[in-house]
Amino acid sequence: MKQQEISKLSVEDLKTRLVNSSETLTKMKIGHAVTPLENPIQIRDVRRTIARLNTELKKRETQSA
After folding, report:
1. Please, are residues 21 and 50 in contact by the beta-carbon 8 Å criterion?
2. pTM, whole model, 2 decimals?
């Protein structure tokens, strides 16, 4: 997910996507430990998406405060 797409989302959408992405990352890590993923770069992409979501949430918190 790109930063432009993330900046268009509402705060509630950001939070729900953050929870979903975190769960996905956990499942991918556990699954990768058991049987290697076909494309392990997916783990990095999900991790970066989580960082982008967290950054946008923090940015909005500081703007509203």
Report:
1. yes
2. 0.91
Domain range 3-64, CATH architecture: Orthogonal Bundle (1.10)
Predicted local confidence at residue 48, as pLDDT: 97
The confidence score (pLDDT) of residue 64 equals 82
Q: Please, are residues 43 and 25 in contact by the beta-carbon 8 Å criterion? A: yes
pLDDT tens for 35-54 read 999 999 999 999 999 999 99
Q: How far apart are CA 15 and CA 63, in angstroms?
A: 17
Domain boundaries, the chain: 3-64
- Burial string for 6-18 (b: 16+ CB within 10 Å, else e) reads beeeeeeebeebb
For tokens 């392990």, name the residue.
40
Cα distance between residue 43 and residue 4, in whole Å: 21
